[in-house]
Amino acid sequence: MIQPDTRLQVMWNRLLAVVEEQGQALIRAAFSPIVRECGDISAGIFDAQGRMLAQAVTGTPGHINTMAEAVKTLRSRFAQSDMKPGDIYLTNDPWIASGHLNDFLLMMPVFYRGTVIGYTACTSHLVDLGGLGMGPEGSDIYDEGLLIPPCKLVSAGTVNALLLEIVKANSREPIANEGDIYALVACCEAGSSRLIQMMQEFGLADLNALSDYIIETSRRGTLDAIAALPKGTWRHVLTVDGYDQDIGLHAALTIAEDHLLLDFDGTAACVGKGINVPLNYATAYSVFALRCIIGADIPNNAGSLDPFRVTGPKGCILNAQPPAPVAMRHTLGQMTPDLVYGCLSQALPDKVPAEGASCMYDLPLRHAPEAMDRGDDLFALELVFNGGTGARPRLDGLSATAFPSGVWGSQVETTEAVAPILFHRRELRTDSGGAGRFRGGLGQHIEVSASQDQDLMLFLSVERIRNPASGRNGGQDGAPGCITVEPGNRTLPGKGEVRIKAGERLIFETPGGGGYGPPSDRADDEVDTDIRSGLITRNAAETQYVRKT
Fold this sequence. Notes:
Radius of gyration: 23 Å
Number of strands: 20
Helix content: 25-40%
Distance between the termini: 65 Å
Strand content: 15-25%
């Protein structure tokens, strides 16, 4: 006979399979490349109290950890007694869902034997919701597109057709938006049906015992990990590019006996452009960064998230209040792990990596305003690229890798198939990783142009142009990002709306990660391997590294 704890562990493993199938259903059914090719999603199972039990491995922290709180909010907005089988709720409110309007969050109550026993939920990115589009140029949330407050998308299995028509009418990509919404619905339904099937197979009437086991086991493990840490408060300031001038992000990390508190007090105020960050999104990435170091082997759920607390003054750029513009909230939100690690490295000096490129290097592109009059192709597309990660205490950084977002890079063939875009080059950027005992990861060199005789509109919001990734413990900085247009070698700022004229080539160089440890400590054979592999040039090796033979 299976012992109780063993039986619960078996059910936990089955739950992981359920959420992964749920996430894959969303990816396979999605229309937009950023979802089906890049995995810009989250999917999860929640208990009847709205506590997250399990999440799909595929997904971004900005979606997953915000979803963990959003389900509690939606559950409090709609009475469980009014819910019916087949109901699905929706919102894209940035301060409830995932920090900007383009992320739709769905929640579905799961009924078993006439009772709500839990919820499935998911989030994904919709490519266009009208307004000024995916760029930082909005002066408030109303410039940035269509905001949908918490509402019912599906009522007892019947889709709210009027709501879908409103979404389509406010988008430059109505067909893709409709398809992506139905993919989100399919994701919720897949999770619900598989969860019910699991309960039937294990003879469960509810999830209460399994939920308590998962959450309490994870919470105890996290508390044990925190108890082993040094206690105190550590502070750090991270300087980022901002919109048109540098911005200081401040953090104080306090490690107590039974919790961690991260405070953004001192951080610069919100700005008049859409790089402000709602606190839910800043919290999601900050806590993710901490959990990568503290209790990293413990599953991510309500129990393991509970001991981590994040606060910041209202109106600072990491705690933006409505109606602040937040379309590109990921630009600074994804810099918070480097801010957090600046604090944590003082407490755990041999555990924390160097700084990396961190924020995604997005290329939101769409047709020029005159395209309709000329009969050109109309499109809206968001490409995703990544730089190098910071070197780790015992390993080199990863090249062209998304950390902390986890979003996969856009594929050349897929992009060229869905939009009038032509890739000329895409390769690793030699010499971009910071030198060190362990070398920083490399960025990318990408060259793009219009494939037809038409102009393109580019909406930039990237970081690490003026403030590259810093090395740690004697490691050197990574190379800064650089964006230029040829012919003419016209250098572009990291943020703003830019027209790429027909015949021009956009050259997009993503940043490298910082190095870890003194470059003089790197072994000669490792330097030689880097040279042979084309990761560094011989000239760079001679200036950055001390040869021992």
